Amino acid sequence: MRQPSPRARRVAVATVSLVMAAGVAACGPEDSEGKDAKASTGGSTPHKGGTLSVLNANAQQDFDPARLYTSGGGNVPSLVFRTLTTRNRENGAAGAKVVPDLATDTGRANKDATVWTYTLKKGLTYEDGTPITSADIKYGIERSFAPELSGGAPYLRDWLVGAADYQGPYKDKKGLSAIETPDDLTIVFHLNKPEGEFPYLATQTQFTPVPKAKDTGTKYEEHPVSSGPYKVVKNENDGEHLVLERNPHWSAATDDQRKAYPDRIDVTSGLDSSVINQRLSASQGADAAAVTTDTNLGPAELAKVTGDKALAARVGTGHFGYTNYIAFNPKVKPFDDPKVRQAISYAVDRSSVVNAAGGSALAEAATTFLPNQKSFGYTPYDLFPAGASGNAAKAKELLKEAGHPDGITVTLTHSNSKDFETSPEIATALQDALKKAGITVKLQGLEENDYGDKIRNVKTEPGFFLAHWGADWPSGGPFLAPIFDGRQIVKDGANFNTGLLNDESVNDEIDSINKLTDLDEAAKRWGALDKKIAEQALTVPLFHPVYKRLYGKDVKNIVISDWTGVLDISQVAVK
Description:
This protein has 575 residues and is an alpha+beta fold. It is 22% helix and 17% strand. It has 15 helices and 19 strands. The protein has a five-stranded mixed sheet, with no helix packed on it. Strands 4-5-7-6 form a four-stranded antiparallel sheet, covered by helices on one side. A hairpin with a 2-residue loop joins strand 6 (179-183) and strand 7 (186-190). The two termini are 36 Å apart. The model is unreliable at 1-41 (pLDDT under 50). InterPro entries: Peptide/Ni-bd (IPR030678), SBP_5 (IPR039424), SBP_5_dom (IPR000914). Keywords: Signal. Residues 1-25 form the signal peptide. This is ABC transporter substrate-binding protein. Residues 97-487 form the Solute-binding protein family domain.
């Protein structure tokens, strides 16, 4: 996931969408095989019926499958949009797997993973009862290339043969020859290069079928044609108020992932986060059957909840594949010297950083760039052991070797947003820790837009700044490649390879792993590559966030997977 904005991290991408995101943009409940998993049903068998309320801060904007940037199909979006594949709707690590959705399997690759073939299940229909065909999926993908429907994941433009300059079906009626539909149930994708993780990409909403005859362009989001268990009956103020009701033509016989217990889903957005948590805490009236898909408990709120056993029992805990870190630009002195970067790595006090991020209940100390989940290929390492509170002596030793016996003065750039990630609290904690090692840190706080513009531009990127990265899907590929693949350095646009690393051996290993269709084997290779890259000390991993979210007292069947890290509303019941 591109370094997420608040909207992009909804998925998270919904996010992502993202998501998005950063929206958008997702490990399951703590001890997901233990007490949390056992209590996940809420103490009674889930039943169909009732209305589920969703209380959110961010509106579900651009409710068009072409424009959404989601992970695993998103949360609210996946109630309406089915895709070729989807995330496995189970607690914990099992939920990080990709499974079939509209397709009969997760895809069949040719020998070098440049051609992927899918067969649709029989009996798939839209909300009006008409059949879903492979041509509808091809058309849905093609319309996502239209400039007026931009916003979705960018991979298809890069991966599909001949797609780089395609402008969508409104301007180019010929469509994409890289996607073939030899019959109503078969769809074939031809790729520019091997992509063993194509089944993950096929969870994005761009793979939603769209009937060409019902396509209304930019107005499609007002009433997209449902392929999922719910249809849109109201969309007010660009997703600020969404009402979903049952799709009478959806069949559980073709969909083993979505439980679809409630009769109705009512999504209200634009609420203050404190109001959302107050309403969920009180659980009065309709709020007793309410959840949130984008609002976490903050440190102060969590302290109050922890002291109340009844409330604490209504908190879902999860982890999304996400890392907060220090980034270095080795083109800027003194960070061009690896020993200076190593010294800072040793000097970091992760305990104080975790406290600044809200405490151990909301953040876990990180020494690896990859998140600490199996699906990413997590391989434990700590190349510059700072202990819990920093190793000032080792840092001073390295600075002396680098020619700075009296220490150094540096500037740390951060965001002024109160996000407990790249914000003043984190920056101040680092400033205090590094001072013990003879490193004087001046803080440069910028407003969110200015901060993003500065750190993502090769020409203005500072030497020392706070950053974060979230995964488009639970694998090492979309986590390591955008940050460390030298071919992804963007000189005249948004650049995310913060260390400007262009190491041929790293690039070659990324290509080799991308050829693997055995995702478990690929995960091991991603973990080994993570450790290899870390030897260059281009980043200092700080912490992985933990998500704590309240839900209403009448909400049952809580499922939180290692893919999204948040409550999956396709599984909940309110009766």
